[in-house]
Each structure stands twice: as structure tokens, then as C-alpha cells.
Amino acid sequence: MIVVHKTADITLGDMLDQVAANPELPLVFSYNGTVIRPGYHVTEVKAAQFFALDCGANPEAWSEIFVQLWDIEEDDRTHMSAGKFATIVRKVSEHVRLDGSAKLTFEVSDGVVPMQLFCAGMPSIENGAFRVSLEPRAASCKPRDRWLAERSNPVTSCCTPSSSSNTCCA
Predict the structure, then answer these.
(1) pTM to 2 decimals?
(2) Residue 14 in 3-state DSSP?
(3) Cα separations (Å) of 44 from 68, 92, 153, 166?
(4) Where do the structural domains in the chain lie, given as residue ranges?
(5) How far is the CA of 78 from the CAs of 57, 63, 91, in angstroms?
(6) Which of 21, 44, 81, 113 has the greatest number of beta carbons closer than 10 A?
(7) In 48-79, which positions are buried (b, 16+ CB within 10 angstroms) versus exposed (e)?
(8) What confidence score (pLDDT) does residue 162 get?
(9) Residue 88 DSSP code
């Protein structure tokens, strides 16, 4: 069995706290082994509240903020500043309730390749810019993730409901 250890999702609040310290620095995202082009746009900021049942029939609820990035080259623009990114988010928050503790998901497309979902690493300052590494958002099994977090051992049954001994994984 292959076990993938993912890093924790950053929240909108984490991102804004980091960029607030140096708002003048360029905000540079990287994904799929490439750096986003300097003309990129933040085309949407969306707030979502999810309610679901996981594969073990456990109720789940979470908030998520989606930031859509359009990866284009435009004129002689430079990478957006961290402060401009924060200003866009603040403007959205005047019209849409944004939960600072919500996990942050990035949707990225160049307008040709279909949009892809990414989770973000914590911004770090490198070479005079905020660098944010975007990693593909993988599917996961929440009961298995909880079990691994509690026990730190290989899993034999990942989808057992909290009130039953039935399993869904083979």
C-alpha cells in the first residue's frame, strides 16, 4: 500500500497574515513545474460551505475559499503585489462572507487548458518575492485520514462508519 502524506491546507487567514507583512513584494505562484506568468489575474474569489457524508457514512462539514487564477501574459505587467492580492480579497469580503479559517483552494487555467484545482503551501519570501507553491489537490478518504492521524499506523480498513463495522475499501 502506498501512503501519501500531504501537507496541511493553508487557510485564507494564513495567506493574508503572511502577505500583510510585506505588501509591496510580488506574489508569484508556481504550479505543475512552472511559474505563473506576470500578467496573471485573480478572476474570482468564491466562498463555499460544504455538507456531505464521507465514505464511512460520517457527516462532514467544512468551509472553503476558491481563488481563481487566470495564467496569462498581458502587456508589460509584472507579478501582482501581495498588497494588491489582499486588496482584492478585502473587496470581495465587502460583498461575500469570507471565513478566514476556511481552507484555501486555487483554480488555475490559462484559458486553454481546463481549470485545475490546487492546494497552496505557505508563502515564503525568496529572491525578493512571495513564492507560493501550488500542488494538485488529491482525493482523500476522511475516515482513513482521521485513523492515520490518531494511530500513525498503516490502515487495514479505511471506511468504517463510526457506528458500524462495515467497510467500503478492499
Answers:
(1) 0.82
(2) helix
(3) 5, 9, 40, 41
(4) 12-151
(5) 48, 32, 21
(6) 81
(7) eeeeeebbbebeeeebbbebbbbbbeeeeeeb
(8) 54
(9) H
Radius of gyration over every alpha carbon of the chain, rounded to an integer in angstroms: 18
Question: Strand 41-53 and strand 59-70: pairing?
Answer: antiparallel
Between residues 19 and 153, the one the model is more confident about: 19
What distance lies between CA 149 and its chain's CA centroid? 20
- Chain position carrying cell 463555499: 48
Q: Which amino acid is at 120?
A: A
Q: Which three cell numbers mark 140?
A: 482523500
Element (H, E) at 142: helix 142-151
Span 80-110, pLDDT tens digits: 999 999 999 999 999 999 999 999 999 999 9
